[in-house]
């Protein structure tokens, strides 16, 4: 079974579906051992052919070398050692030794991603629904990489048997009697062989390096999500029913006075700033930890999110929230820290405020809740006032005019 199929089964199993998940580690080991076996078979073929060439060529080559003095010059002796190292490295490259090891390690990383994603889902993170399908794509590319490696070890490397045997033979003869002509012979053979090997390596590496980048990006994304969930769990914030964290960042609120430090949390319902810093004390000693929600705005209050770069060389990434009527502030300004670019942050907050992030949710919407929301009243049954816009996931709404709570 391919890694892609195993990833699909594992994803289904983690979602609670009744799927038998096979022992993927043993299958991974089996594939690696098969590649290593083919590499060993290649090495044996090289040695065998080199033995034949050595028997055929020794007498003739020794006559040619009779007048060729052994190398005494220190510089040439170094060149001989370099040629030997180059030969040994090239044999490993033809056997794909390093590539097989790296691709196997990459496969293990992909194998671990479903559990890593499941952990953040269990912690309440419901966005980036593409993560589950993304690892299946990576697994498919990993399978393709392995197929190419096996094809190389089965077919293309066999086409290089004679060149490898020539290199092996030239290496043996140089090792037995280091002379200038033998060094030149080995260097010439290695030059030709390396050109062919590099062409095949580039094809395989281009594929697995692309997967490697995607795996690294996904692991980095999950690390950031876990850190943001840690911040939320350590905060004084209580999420509403059905509310979920979308993103968070370390921030400083520019209140034109104290400029408190803390965190900005963006959920699918609100944008919240919590002060979280030590106040008082001197030289890093003493003081009191202050943790308090200073402001929060619902998405329907946000008219626009504007990025701005301030400070020396524009090094401070600012977010400016332009708020509508009825909001506690007309404008909120905060510096987003942690190396997050203002443009990116503003773009994501705008998406959240406009409700676009619901499309990224990995949680299937409740049909009954959708029906209740669609049939929800728009006017207060008590005073007739226009009810505020419903927050995503909310189960009730409060009339701003008379305070009546309407259950949805």
The succession of helices and strands, N to C, reads HHHHHHHEEEEEEEHHEE
Biggest sheet, spatial arrangement of strands = 4-3-2-1-7-6-5
DSSP, total strands: 9
The biggest sheet, with number of strands, parallel, antiparallel or mixed sense and barrel status, is: 7 strands, antiparallel
Hey, roughly how much beta strand do the residues contain?
15-25%
| CA(first)-CA(last) distance | 48 Å
What structural class do the secondary elements suggest? alpha+beta
Number of helices: 9
In quaternary terms, these chains amount to single chain
Provide the helix percentage. Answer: 40-55%
Mean pLDDT: 81
Low-confidence stretches: none
Radius of gyration: 33 Å
The gross shape turns out to be elongated
Task: Note down, in words, how this protein is organized.
By secondary structure, this protein is of the alpha+beta class. It has helices at 3-14, 24-65, 74-94, 97-122, 130-159, 161-176, 180-233, 342-353, 367-374, and strands at 245-253, 261-267, 270-279, 288-298, 302-310, 316-323, 331-336, 396-398, 405-407. The chain has a seven-stranded antiparallel sheet. Helix 3 (74-94) packs across helix 7. The radius of gyration is 33 Å and the shape is elongated. The protein starts with a helix and ends with a strand. The model has no long low-confidence stretch (mean pLDDT 81).
Main attributes of the structure:
seven-stranded antiparallel sheet, 408 residues, two-stranded antiparallel ribbon, 54% helix, alpha+beta
